[in-house]
Specification:
Blueprint: H1 7-16, H2 18-38, E1 44-52, H3 64-81, H4 84-94, H5 100-106, E2 107-111, E3 117-124, H6 127-149, E4 154-158, H7 173-198, H8 205-212, H9 227-245
Antiparallel strand pairs: 1-3, 1-4, 2-3
């Protein structure tokens, strides 16, 4: 015979272990906040933009096909920007004590909405260094692409700048705590139902019928004892006995 669980039983299970659920959720959020604010290193982001356009000699014959060609070249430029031939020179100019692979992982390159504009984004724990890396990558690429592909069609559209009070892009403590709240709540509710499922103790008449399949003939009700009333009754009897003896 299959057992069914009603919504009332589900709510009763949650109500029964509500303190445990709240405690686990609060602990999860607290741990997330503790790690986010004290252990995770803030990462800052800076971006610059370069424009892929026609060379000055070809400006008079500029047409739509030239734009399409430049857009197709952007995919090639994206690879070149993050290649060792560019990043090694960036490391040398800035005196960075990190590998080319490590520097590569800090940089992301992509076209701005299928346009001729290419965005170069750098993330680093030092906001000032993130700005320097972004601008240096753009300038080195603009200079080196002339000899690499024998073209002169790249110009810097906007340079990265350091704001007065830069804000880190990660970690995001608020988002981390929100995720911890959801995960902690789900884990706590799941644990509550697991404990209820593993609890085979018999507490009510329904439990006897459910687990043992025995019909309950009768039950002994429980009464709340008024201790003060009992004490007064005992004292009264003692006083009566004392009077009889006297």
């Amino acid at each position: 015979m299959e057992e069914t669980i009603s919504l009332k039983e589900l709510f009763e299970t949650i109500k029964k272990r509500i303190l445990m659920i709240i405690a686990i959720t609060v602990i999860a959020v607290g741990i997330s906040a503790f790690i986010s604010y004290l252990f995770l290193t803030p990462i800052y982001q800076s971006s610059t933009q370069i424009l892929v356009n026609q060379s000055k000699a070809d400006m008079q014959t500029f047409n739509v096909n030239d734009v399409r060609t430049n857009i197709e070249l952007i995919n090639t430029y994206n690879v070149i920007i993050k290649s060792p031939i560019i990043l090694d020179k960036v490391r040398s100019e800035l005196g960075l004590e990190r590998s080319t692979e490590s520097l590569n992982s800090q940089i992301s390159v992509g076209a701005e909405r299928n346009s001729q504009v290419v965005g170069i984004t750098v993330q680093d724990p030092d906001p000032a260094l993130a700005v320097q890396i972004a601008n240096t990558v753009a300038s080195v690429f603009q200079r080196e692409i002339v000899s690499i592909m024998n073209v002169d069609n790249v110009s810097i559209l906007s340079e990265a700048t350091l704001t007065e009070n830069p804000a880190p892009v990660k970690p995001n403590p608020t988002l981390n705590m929100a995720i911890a709240f959801v995960v902690g709540l789900m884990a706590a509710v799941g644990l509550a139902f697991l404990l209820e499922f593993l609890d085979n103790t018999i507490k009510t008449e329904k439990d006897i019928e459910k687990h043992l399949g025995i019909s309950v003939i009768g039950a002994i009700p429980t009464f709340e004892v008024d201790h003060q009333m009992v004490a007064r009754s005992v004292n009264s009897r003692r006083n009566k006995r004392g009077e009889e003896i006297a």
